[in-house]
Amino acid sequence: MRLDKLLANMGYGSRKEVKQLLKQKAVTVDDDYVKDAALHVDPDKQVVAVYGEHVVYTEFVYFMMNKPPGVISATEDLREETVIDLLEPLHQHFQPFPVGRLDKDTEGLLLLTNDGVLAHNLLSPKKHVPKVYYAQIDGVVTAEDAEKFAAGVELDDGYLTKPGKLVILRSAQQSEIELTIQEGKFHQVKRMFEAVGKHVTYLKRLSMGSLTLDDSLALGEYRALTPEELDHLQSQQ
Ligand code: URA
Q1: Which of 45, 146, 149, 152 supports an S-S bond with 164, CB 3.0-4.6 Å?
Q2: Looking at residue 69, what is its pLDDT?
Q3: Closest approach atom of ligand 1 to CA 200
Q4: Is residue 115 annotated as a catalytic residue, yes or no?
Q5: What SUPFAM superfamilies does the entry give (predicted)?
Q6: What stretches of the chain adopt beta strand conformation (E)?
């Protein structure tokens, strides 16, 4: 790959800006200063550095975000703030997109990647990737609701959901629950509760397949997946 392309791909600026870096003797390849933007380098075999910092070439990025309420799970929008707006420019440069959608008011685990194959596999209805949600419910959630969810409930458009596993954490006028579902229909959790006459007042996704939200991430924060997290996600498919 051309040196200027590699550096531009890795977020070191436009090709023009990269040329400036080269001119300033900021770039080394295997410890030799290089000024030639067209030089071909093999990032697997040669060490490229900018101001002495090793440039590790990656094509794919994988981030987990604790999505805050008030932002939408889209890559761009004219009016609304998106989850991509919350990423640093260096990370936006890789053009990640959210894997599936959380509603604007929903919080919690959102995976962002530019790996279309992984995204497709996680979202494919055939793969039954379980997603776990924590929710607060206006209304008394009962064992009967859990039985109904286990059998599948009919949504407002007549769709019969696959079985969902409902764990009641607190049954009161304001209930707290955890729900595991294996599909991702539009507003699914909210609509499942509407189907039993109850209303979700707060919703947070805790996990998706083997990936669990890192609870040290504050709302709006994100971090790269660890190699182990990525391995597990890829191997469960
Ligand atoms: N179910 C919902 O109702 N909303 C979400 O954001 C995710 C699942």
Answers
A1: 149
A2: 98
A3: 3
A4: no
A5: Alpha-L RNA-binding motif, Pseudouridine synthase
A6: 27-29, 32-33, 48-50, 53-54, 62-67, 97-98, 107-113, 131-138, 165-170, 174-181, 199-208, 211-212, 222-224
Could you give the angle at the alpha carbon of 192 between the alpha carbons of 188 and 196, nearest 5°? 165
The atom number, within ligand 1, closest to the CA of 102 reads 6
Topology adopted by domain 62-125+211-235:
Alpha-Beta Plaits (3.30.70)
Report the mean per-residue pLDDT for the chain.
95
The residue whose CB lies within 8 Å of the most ligand 1 atoms, and thus the one to mutate among 190, 194, 200, 205, is 190
pLDDT greater than 60 at residue 237: no
Closest C-alpha to ligand 1, atom 7: 102
Annotated catalytic residue within 4, 44, 85, 103: 103
For ligand 1, residues with CB inside 6 Å are 102-103, 106, 187-190, 203
Give the DSSP H or E segment for 235: helix 227-235
pTM: 0.88
For the segment 108-140, what is each residue's pLDDT rounded down to a tens digit?
A: 999 999 999 999 999 998 889 999 999 999 999
Q: Does domain 130-208 have CATH number 3.40.50.1820?
A: no
Q: How far is the CA of 210 from the centre of ligand 1 (A)?
A: 19
Q: CATH 3.30.70.1560 in the chain: give the residue spans.
A: 130-208
From the CA of 174, how far away is ligand 1's center (Å)?
Answer: 19
